[in-house]
Amino acid sequence: MDVFKVSRSGPLKGEIEVGGAKNAALPLLAATLLTDEAVTLRNVPDLSDIRFMVEILSHVGSEVENPEPGVWKLKAAELTHIAPYELVRKMRASVCLLGPLTARLRKAEVSIPGGCVIGPRPIDLHLKGLAKLNCEVEITNGYVHVDASKIQGGPVFLGGRSGSTVTGTANIVMAAVLAPGTTRIECAACEPEVVDLCNLLVKMGAKIEGIGSPELTIEGVEKLHGCEHSVIADRIEAGTFIVAAAITRGDVTVKGIPPNLLGAFLDKLEESGVPLKIEGDNIRVLPYEGSLKPVDCITLPYPGFPTDLQAQLCALMTQVEGISIITERIYPNRFMHVPELQRMGADIAIEGPSAIVKGASKLSGAPVMASDLRASAALILAAFAATGETWIQRIYHLDRGYERFEQKLAGLGAKIERLSDKDMPKELLEA
């Protein structure tokens, strides 16, 4: 099993290119099931989650080609309506098959995804939305069974206790594009990844109004066709690179990321004092002297501060004089990175849904465990500011969402290596 060996890194310098967004690519791949014609997706990141999704699509009948890096051509001429547990259990985003299978085949049988370390992510709003489209929905033996023989457009409200649901919105939009009549979705997720999905569907012949707003109006059509589409840039990867530059007081230009995708995040960094220069789709982090300012941050659905950048901000705030308060409103259990940061010397206390970060901590390298995708990134960022060596285990979490992460950062001067766990000092393995 691979591990990362990370050492304190001086100011990172240079340019770094942002890849395609994983959270956009996964529902886009699922959407290719809505037509029997070929759909070509470009700028698709090479990640384990992507490969899992392609495996599932192949299982349900899609013909899949990967003619060149970053390009996938999919043609779903013949489909089965069953997505089994042995495949779905590998990745929660596979629940996105529910909408297109329902729409295309008028029936679906999809295993309910398993649990997640950052807390429960129920699919009740997905099922509620399908029921509002006049589908019969039943859960038996761990599977969602959908009979959509009488599917019909109608009003759907998708608000939940944590706001709108991103994958739920994606599922209901995909189900509605082939449903007779008009569907009006209220409290739809406004995330850029949902916008990207809607833009693909429009290219395929869907009729969707209100894209990017919390109210979507969909006129069902009889058939969709093939097209080509390029996946949007990954705003979370971009934000992670920006924090890497800030925590090392570097001079880094993050290229290929429209700044509007990161509005709340950039606003919070500027509030802290991180000097930023924005030119078109390039964001440059400039060197700075002295200390940054602590922040009070709350994660919220888009356009609020993204939950997927909460752990990275937490790592940065350990190096800022004063007390920062980071409140998690999307996934209240998403503080699995905190105990590991504490092992490195961070002064953080959890009070309810908030992390209280007492900054200016002198971090030191330690053996740590990555618990999830974004926690992995946070530990690497903290290691850049720590004395000595940090060994990060279970980095397969990171490979789910960051493509060539260590190579890109090493290109900026970061001291990071991917090694086998056999290369870890024996005393650390026994710790």
TrEMBL record:
This protein's pathway: Cell wall biogenesis; peptidoglycan biosynthesis
Residues bound to UDP-N-acetyl-alpha-D-glucosamine: 92, 121-125, 308, 330
Localization: Cytoplasm
One annotated Gene Ontology cellular component of this protein: cytoplasm
Domain Enolpyruvate transferase positions: 8-409
Keywords, ordered alphabetically: Cell cycle, Cell division, Cell shape, Cell wall biogenesis/degradation, Cytoplasm, Peptidoglycan synthesis, Pyruvate, Transferase
Residues recorded with modification 2-(S-cysteinyl)pyruvic acid O-phosphothioketal: 116
UniProt GO MF annotations: UDP-N-acetylglucosamine 1-carboxyvinyltransferase activity
One Pfam family matching this protein: EPSP_synthase
SUPFAM superfamilies: EPT/RTPC-like
Catalysed conversion reaction: phosphoenolpyruvate + UDP-N-acetyl-alpha-D-glucosamine = UDP-N-acetyl-3-O-(1-carboxyvinyl)-alpha-D-glucosamine + phosphate
GO BP annotation list: cell division; cell wall organization; peptidoglycan biosynthetic process; regulation of cell shape; UDP-N-acetylgalactosamine biosynthetic process
Annotated active site: 116
EC number: 2.5.1.7
InterPro entries in alphabetical order: Enolpyruvate_Tfrase_dom, Enolpyruvate_Tfrase_sf, MurA_subfamily, RNA3'P_cycl/enolpyr_Trfase_a/b, UDP_GlcNAc_COvinyl_MurA
Binding sites annotated in the UniProt record for phosphoenolpyruvate: 22-23
Protein purpose: Cell wall formation. Adds enolpyruvyl to UDP-N-acetylglucosamine.
Membership in a protein family: Belongs to the EPSP synthase family. MurA subfamily.
NCBIfam families: murA, PRK09369.1
Protein name from the UniProt record: UDP-N-acetylglucosamine 1-carboxyvinyltransferase
